[in-house]
Amino acid sequence: MSEVPVIETERLRLRERTPDDAESLYPCLSDAGLMTWWSRAPFTSVEEVRKSFTPDETWAGWRAWAITRQGDDRAIGYVAAGEKRQGGVSEIGYVLERAAWGGGIASEAVSALIGHLFASGQRRVFADTDPDNVASNGLLKRLGFTLEGRLRGEWETHIGVRDSLIWGLLAEEWRK
Question: How many alpha carbons fall within 13 Å on the CB side of residue 12?
Fold first, then answer.
């Protein structure tokens, strides 16, 4: 699962996220409100973002796609997938700049990623969210994910110890 192919939708082009996307994504990843539900604090510099986008052991098994609009290569967010177990189980994650909220961009990008993962032979996709992340939990529910459980005290984050909600979707449940 190491290849990061281009994935296109009607409005979006998902391409490999690179360290060069740090400048365009820094405003999003340094936004304290947007980063509230992440397991880490907001980034403090473009260089810190660039370093986090450089492949290393932290990203082993993960692939990341910059979300861009058709005809404009500036990253407005990203989606990522990490193969968690052999046999076709992947975890997904995503972030989108505030200016792109409310227009269905997140749904379109995450749907495109899920479609790609299932077409590539994955049998299960899951996401791990904070229980208070209303927007992300709503997105996963709208995309057909099932809430499978709550892991209490799962993450020690910049806002304290937090629970995790685990959302799962099987290939045969996926609706396009």
Answer: 26
Burial of 33: CB neighbours in 10 Å, binned 0-12, 13-18, 19+ = exposed
State pLDDT tens for residues 143-163: 999 999 999 999 999 999 999
User: Backbone phi, then psi, for 2, in 5-degree steps?
Assistant: -95, -20
DSSP one-letter code for 41? P
pTM here is: 0.94
For the CA atoms of 108, 114, 116, 121, what is the dihedral angle to 10 degrees? -170
Dist CA 134 CA 132 (whole Å):
6
**H-only helix segments in the chain:** 22-29, 46-52, 105-119, 134-142
Q: What is the pLDDT of residues 95-132, one digit of tens each?
A: 999 999 999 999 999 999 999 999 999 999 999 999 99
